Amino acid sequence: MTRETHWIVGPGALGRLIALRLAGRVPVRLVGRHRLPGRQTLVTPEGDILVQALAISRIDALPPETPAVVHLTTKAHGAEAAHATLAARLPAGVPLVLWQNGFACQPRLTARHHGPVLCATTTEGAHVQGDDRVTHAGHGHTYLGALEGRHAQLAGALARTLADAGLPAEAVTDIRVRLWRKLAVNAAINPLVARFMIRNGQLRDRPFRPMVERLIAEVAAILEAEGVAPPGGDGLEGWQQMVWQVVEATASNRASMLQDVRAGRLTEHEAILAPLQDAASRHRLPAPGLDGHLQALRRRAAGLAEPPAAC
What we know:
InterPro entries: 6-PGluconate_DH-like_C_sf (IPR008927), 6PGD_dom2 (IPR013328), ApbA (IPR003710), Ketopantoate_reductase (IPR050838), KPA_reductase (IPR013752), KPR_N (IPR013332), NAD(P)-bd_dom_sf (IPR036291)
Shape: globular
Pfam family, one: ApbA
Number of domains: 2
Catalytic activity: (R)-pantoate + NADP(+) = 2-dehydropantoate + NADPH + H(+)
Helix content: 40-55%
GO cellular component, one term: cytoplasm
EC number: 1.1.1.169
Order of helices and strands: EHEEEEEHEHEEEEHEHHHHHH
């Protein structure tokens, strides 16, 4: 990648993590609805404190520059509104990277954006500690690629830029499969921890473990019908192994959906559960567990005053 500016649109935990890691490697501009402090602090997984000055702009007051790439790091339910705000400002051809969970906005924005679109799926962990401080809670890995398998050179260059900045990344041609796999893990974990207000590791115990197993079985049947296999291609057993490995590795974590519930924010239930529900309907498969969680989270969302945020 060149040393032109990277815009990170959505200054939540992931957006600020990306911005702070990239800063110093490439010029960065952090974009949001509200202006944050220009000096931002990153606490690394090793406990180091990194302080970095960032260029910060409101999405409605952007400077007259053309970014090298736009990283859209809003929550899934705010991604399309943020993109609509940016679209009139961006010339055709500017690459867009979508960092959202689930598999809802990615196909729509890929079709809508006037330029290359990459999707990212990451296991990097981060949480916000204030307007000027974010904690990088755990090292992970990021995969990048276009849904239609194009833009391999762009994906490779961006992966190298991220890796050089301390965020290990890899360009792949099967990002669609990887997005579905992450969605499967999120669907088996997030609704339960959010509804019962528990940490991930508590899913290993009763009464939650049988609930997880039922969700895995539903998801496995749906994704088999969609032609998506788990790593190793071992059917239900492969999905079970993948989900429980994540639970074990993140046992002490509060999932993002739980953090949203605790903060009184909208959750990403539509992006994570609705695509599976739609696929189950197409293939005429029963999914009572997924349906129950989705309806419960929709009822909660209906009672919140917060509208979908642009960023």
